[in-house]
Write a structure and sequence with these properties.
globular, mainly alpha, two-stranded antiparallel ribbon, about 290 residues, single chain, MetI-like fold
Amino acid sequence: MYRDKYRLIVPFLAPSVLLYVVFVLYPYIQSMYISLTRWRGLTRNITFIGLGNFQRMLGDDLFWNALSHNVIYLLTIPLITISIALFFAFVLTQGVAGSKFYRVTFFFPQVMSVVAIGVLWSFVYHPTMGVLTSLLRLLGVENPPVWLGNPDTALGAVGAVVVWQAVGFYMVLFIAGMESIPSTYYEAATLDGANRWYIFWNITLPLLWDTVRTALVFLAIGAVDMFAIVQTMTQGGPSRATDVLATYLYERAFLQSEFGYATAIAVSMFLLVFTLSTVLMRVTQRESLEY
């Protein structure tokens, strides 16, 4: 019986496994090898140098500069995004008039491409004809910040765009989770005299924790990437003030033709994401609540 079952499963499973090995597993293994070589990408001459690229990375100030920006995003974007999304989700599940309209409006940025969002916000931040600059001048600010041209404000300006885009998606995700919580819990808490703040912290958030935990992991992974939005808006500038690992990797690979070193950076990003995801899943693990 078991042999008959496997004879039926294997023919259907084999093509998927083969495609996974060829297009996912093999490139990973190949990348691991290339990270141990000196290769310019356009030649067959590949020199094996062992851990030389990783040793070089330790003394590369530009690498650590890019990594520091990823760390800043990692510590801010997930917490800010989840906090705002939870607030909006909780408010919109309290019977607010026009809640469906707000859901669609907040979710709209998620259906736009990252490149389009980057171009749009580049115009919003424009120092002379940008909407934000014009608004600040109307409010009496004589010299509005040059948001993307000032190293002191560029990193935060790009991060704000990422939060703006992501909030709507996670808000809708949290709303779905909140609406699946039985209303009897809320009714019982209300009869006991609990206010909305108490209900949120002691009923809504614990029952929604698995969703929040998943959102935290996905946002953390996104904070380690950040390539599309940074490349579109600032290309890592000004003066490398918004450079992240992905843009630095791109520069080394496609502008400097240092594919071996660039692949080593990519491997370090993979190890960072893998370690980060594992730690977050363990640290945020709680006893599952059933309802």
